[in-house]
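Q: Hi! First time doing this. I have a protein sequence and I read that you can turn it into a structure. Is that right? Here it is:
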Amino acid sequence: MNGFDWSGFALVTIGSFVAAAVLMIVTAAFGFARGRHNVVDVSWGVGFVVVALVAAAFGDGDAWRRWLLAALVAVWGLRLAAHMARRTSGHGEDPRYEKLLDDAGGNRTLTAIRKIYLTQGVALWFVSLPVQVAAVAHGGVGVFTILGVAVWSVGFVFEAVGDAQMSAFKADPANRGTVMDRGLWGWTRHPNYFGDACVWWGIFLVAAQTWPGVLTILSPVAMTYFLVYATGARLLEQHMARRPGYREYQQRTAYFVPRPPHR
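A: Yes, that's right. Below is the predicted 3D structure, encoded as structure tokens:
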């Protein structure tokens, strides 16, 4: 259909799935050995980089598009992985995963495999479908390509600046026990998650420039769902609700999409 190489796509998507599976198996082994499963947060960013490199290497589409997306994913994924590695180093389990395992009950090992590693491995493969499809597509630069890079840039800035502001806030002992409501955190309670969503909507737009990239729209939709409702903002809000001043922060600050704070 319009010259799209479906056999080439099959090779790329199978290779991407295998790469994601191997990475999650290694991560699970490391997580069980360390006794904490938040190591998967580091592998999350790395996994997208691995898939993007597999797609760029095995795809037969336009080289500039393959390697443009590989570069965008690598810049985002490696920064995120480095940030999560610094954030989790020397700390115990993430409260989100503790709550997930406690609420599930039963065999915690099987629950961790199914609800953490398997779920994130499949999600990684599914969310990266725009990158996989674009790796075997042909076509020139268009409005969607330029718009996609712009949206990716907005998202990357929001995520990187938001993380840096939070790290600086936590490093100051005077802020212990208080709520971060400055900088980007005064415009949205989750600038890092909002930035994540923009990054993947931008990548989708680049892929949507050529057929059948537009069909992968469910990938950024899924990523946004994870960030807002599944494992991101919703669980973090439940954990933070116990902190003094957080209810007032919720009342004056946007949940996800940024807006000026209410007085």
